[in-house]
Structure formats: C-alpha cells, structure tokens
Specification:
CATH architecture: Alpha-Beta Complex
Largest sheet: 7 strands, mixed
CATH topology: hypothetical protein yedk fold
Distance between the termini: 18 Å
Structural class: alpha+beta
Oligomer: single chain
Order of helices and strands: EHEEEEHEHEEEEEEEEHHE
Number of domains: 1
Radius of gyration: 16 Å
CATH class: Alpha Beta
Helix content: 10-25%
CATH superfamily: SOS response associated peptidase-like
Length: 203
C-alpha cells in the first residue's frame, strides 16, 4: 500500500527527470512533502513526440463513474496481480499506463504495538519512478484527470515496513511499462526493482 507520497524533488531529482522526460513544467507550488489520496499528483504519460506531464486526482476515476461515486472506493492503489481482472483498472492497464515520479513515500510500520512514521526514498536522491495508470473523464466542471499507483509485494529490504510497496521501475524499463503488452508490462512492474537501492529513515 502507498497512501502518502512525497513529490518535493531536490536538484538531483529534477535533473534526472529532465534527462528522462524533457521539460515537465510543473509548478513549484505543488512540491509537497506529503501528498494524500484525492490530492493532485503529478504523472508522466506518452504524448505525440514524447511525453506530457499533467496533474491528476490521486485515486482513479474510471469511465462510467462520476467523482461522487468514485469517492466511495479506494482507487488510489491498484494491485499488479489483479489489474487484468478488476473492471475499475483493466481498461487503463491495457492502454493508459503512466509513470508517477516521487521523491519518496511514507509508511507507518508497527513494532511492539507502536507505529513509527518512516520515509522510503532512494539512497542517491534520484526520483522513484512508480508504475501507474491514468484516466480522464468528462464532468460538469470539465475534464477530470486521475491516476493510481500500482502496488506489488515488497522487496526483501521492505518486508518489515509493509506487506505492499509501490511497483517501482528502473529507468531502463520505462518503455516496456508504457508501451509493452499487458504481459510484458506486468512482468517489469513485478521484477524491475532491485533490493538495496532504497533507504528507510524515521521521520
């Protein structure tokens, strides 16, 4: 599970994102240490000639479902194991994949009955590249962009933190996630990330 995100990138993060995706033109006022579901979250998707980087509601709003109805469901995470089965996600999984860059994310592991807030991020300060899905629906107020973070079982170094983690991608696997067939995309979401890249620090 991933229910709190950090998208307040430092200089290394911005440089890496620019090298991967080109100019992103995100407003500095939306750099936040703690983003919650239903807040606006940045994501990157394919566009003609490269990439585009909109903001979207964190919590996917599927086609045929209004925002009020979507609020009844926890659509801010989607399990990679069941994407192809879930009506809310399977359409987007086939044709609307995205990358959600994060500076880190937060969890609250429990030890001896006590919860401790921790931040998980890369040791080298580069951004986390999270596999995600996006959608855009028409509402009375205009187009509504939304997104969800894909989750997977944890790598060995995060087992004591939570039983789920974001499906993190290495940069070499971005193209497969965005453009590959469902089987290929599912494979990289489950296997791209390697242990010992992350660090866990107490807040």
């Amino acid at each position: 599970m991933c229910g709190r995100a950090d998208d307040n990138f430092g200089p290394i993060g911005w440089q890496t994102l620019s090298e991967l995706f080109g100019p992103l033109r995100w407003s500095m006022e939306f750099m936040r240490d703690e983003v919650r579901p239903t807040h606006q979250l940045k994501f990157v998707r394919r566009a003609a000639g490269g990439f585009e980087a909109p903001y979207g509601r964190w919590g996917l709003v599927p086609h045929g479902m209004g925002l009020d109805e979507a609020k009844k469901f926890a659509t801010f995470n989607a399990r990679i194991e069941s994407l192809h089965e879930k009506p809310m996600f399977k359409g987007a999984f086939h044709s609307q994949r995205c990358v959600i860059p994060l500076a880190g994310f937060w969890e609250w592991p429990t030890s001896a009955g006590v919860k401790t807030k921790v931040r998980i991020a890369r040791k080298d300060s580069k951004p986390l590249l999270v596999a995600g899905l996006w959608n855009c629906v028409q509402t009375p107020d205009g187009p509504l962009e939304s997104c969800t973070i894909i989750t997977r079982p944890p790598t060995p170094d995060l087992i004591d933190v939570h039983d789920r983690m974001p499906a993190l991608l290495l940069s070499k696997d971005i193209d497969v996630w965005l453009d590959g067939g469902p089987h290929e995309a599912r494979g990289v979401a489950l296997t791209s990330w390697q242990p010992r890249i992350l660090q866990v620090t107490q807040a």
